[in-house]
Amino acid sequence: MFNQAIGGAPLNLMWALTSGDIGYQATCKYPIRKNKVIAGAYPKKGHLADNAWQGFVPLSELPYSINPEKGWLANGNNFVTSKNDKHGISHSFTYQHRVVRIGEMLDQIKQRKAQGGSSATVEDMKVMQFDTLDIQARDSMPDMMAVVGKAMGSTRLAAVDKKRVSLAKEIFSTWDFRFSVDSSAAAIFMAWEHAMANLMHETKIKGVRGR
Fold first, then answer.
1. Among 139, 149, 137, residue whose Cα is nearest residue 188
2. Number of Cβ atoms within 10 Å of the Cβ of 142
3. Considering the domain 2-94 in this protein, what is its CATH number?
4. In terms of C-beta distances under 8 Å and separation of at least 24 residues, what long-range contacts does 166-173 make, across chains too?
5. Where are the domains of the chain?
6. pLDDT tens digits for 3-34?
C-alpha cells in the first residue's frame, strides 16, 4: 500500500516512524531504455526503434535505504544510495559536498545526544539550513596554499602579482571557510576555482577553451 501510494510522486521520499525506523525511497516513473540512461539523457531520434522506451522501472527496483548504519539520511541533490540501483536513473546528481557537510552536522547532534544532550531540535534545523561552510574550500585549501608557496618563489611571477598573491594568502589565513555575503576570502576562492577549471579545460582537453 505504501509503495502504491508514492509510486507516481516525482521526488526523493524520506520517512520516519514513531518506532524510530527511517527510510529513503527514490520514486517517480523512470523509462527503461535499451542503451541505459547515458543515451536517454539527450535528445534522440524518436522514430528509431533503438531509442524507444521499453516500459518503466518498477518502484521495487529503484534505489532505497532503510535504517542505514550511520543512523541518518540526508539529501543535498546527491545520489543518496546505490543499493538496489539496477537500472541507473540519472548521471546528473550533484557532487557529494553538500550532503557530507549535512552529515557532519548530524553527527555532531548524535554525539551531543550520546553525551546526555538533546536530540535534534528546530534550532538545529535552522542552523543547518543557513549553514555556509564550504567543505570543498576547506579540503582544497592545503593544496591551494602549496601552489601559492611555489608561485611566491617563482621568478616568472611579476612583483605586482606577488603582492596580490601575498594579500590573498593573508586573507585566507583567517578564513573559516564560510561563504558569508561579505567574505573576501570566499570571493577569491571562487575566482581561483573558476580559473583552475578553465586552465584544466584549456590544457587537458584539445580544442576546448575556458569560459
1. 137
2. 8
3. 3.60.20.10
4. 169/145, 172/141, 172/144, 172/145
5. 2-94, 95-131, 135-204
6. 566 655 556 788 899 999 999 888 877 788 77
